[in-house]
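Researcher: I'd like a structural prediction for the single chain below. Treat it as a standalone chain; there are no partners to consider.
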Amino acid sequence: MYNSFCRRGLITRNVKSAVDLFHEKFGMSFSPALSREFRPYKPDPAPLLHICSTWGVEPNEVVMIGDSLKDDVACGKRAGAVTCLLDETGRYDSPKYANVEHKPDYKVSSLSQFHSLLESNFDLTP
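Model: Treating it as a single chain, here is the predicted structure.
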């Protein structure tokens, strides 16, 4: 995610103005950046499929990372992408999540751990 040759898209339920503020405040760019105005929104696979189409790649060539099993992981799985659950608090370690319909391919507790996962499991050559 930190490499300049890794494309970053964003799918969020926040409004577009919040996404624009994020881009401005942190100087990190996501393109495309799909806010709640894009319909249908996650967990429908349409937003991720739109990003894949925009980039000219197949869904199995992208990684969908997010902090929600029911929205982010479900969206990625339904689209056919590799999925990674960001669980910073260990919330999803609870037994009540053991039998969810859409299980992530990977689970990390931080974005730095996700970066290490990318480097060790995927070819990031431009």
